[in-house]
Amino acid sequence: MKPHLSLTLTALLAIAIAACGPAATPQPTPPPAPTATVAPPTQAPTAVPTIAPSATPAAFPMTFTDSLGRTVKINAAPQRIVSLAPSNTEILFAIGAGSRIVGADPYSDYPPEAKSIARIENYPKVNAEVVVALKPDLVLAGGITNPDDVAALNKLGLTVYTIGTPAGIEAIFASIITVGQLTGNSSRAEQVVTGLRDRFQTLTDKVAQAQSRPKVFYEIDDTDPAKPWTAGPGSFTDVLITLAGGQNIGAAGRDQYFQMSLEEIVSQNPDAIIFSHSGYSGRTKEEVLARKGWENIAAIKNGIVFSIDADIVDRPGPRIVDGLEALAKMIHPELFK
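^ that's the sequence the OP posted. Answer follows.
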């Protein structure tokens, strides 16, 4: 399996694991004495913050509980931030804290300014030596960051907060609010979320007008074209397809992310095929349309095949509404004329 695919599926499986657990609540509390709790050896359930918006920025120091259940004290608004997940990087830029990022994972490539940030290898483990050398006052880990790496960085005296992989749209909005509070950018974070929530509501209202729910096959990887990877029941991708007014044929599968056989795909006869791997596979719509054995599928017959940027669908950050809108336009183009 390709390294990029391995990381992509790891991220998606992290979403799947997160969706199964009870919600944690990373709310700021009045600052007690500093604590340094080492992360548990296994990934904790994803955090779904329920934080009331504040009209004015909260005063530091503040104490938070992250998605690993760790107590994290922030003494002052961080000025040197390390981001270990692309979604964290995108959130930081969206809320006006991008200029404070001094290091990021190799896949933090959006917005374009992020490409000039110093890189930190994080697969198969985080390069702690590089992180320490950057002298961060806050390290933002992600849902796919190994808890052992979080514990190791914590033992080195670094302040590490894990943003768990959200299990839904509202949880993503809550994560943005949390990052705003962590960085002292609460007001901007709340503005971003208000705008996203308004767009989300407009989209769902439009999709509600649809007269049908087309069947969709969402292809994550086609390394084995006879058994491509897809999104199954309860996956975040499944949720997005449903919100976009489609029926995910993978929802009838056995796992949240799995390989579906060609026979199963033909039997389900999807009305639309959406693939998200062209960024690294180089696959084109024409190549998908020309696949042997696929010619009798409705989506192939009618040319309803689309490529989508995986990053706007898979990254739990401020572009998630862009991803939902893109899916809705592919599944229900008649609603956007």
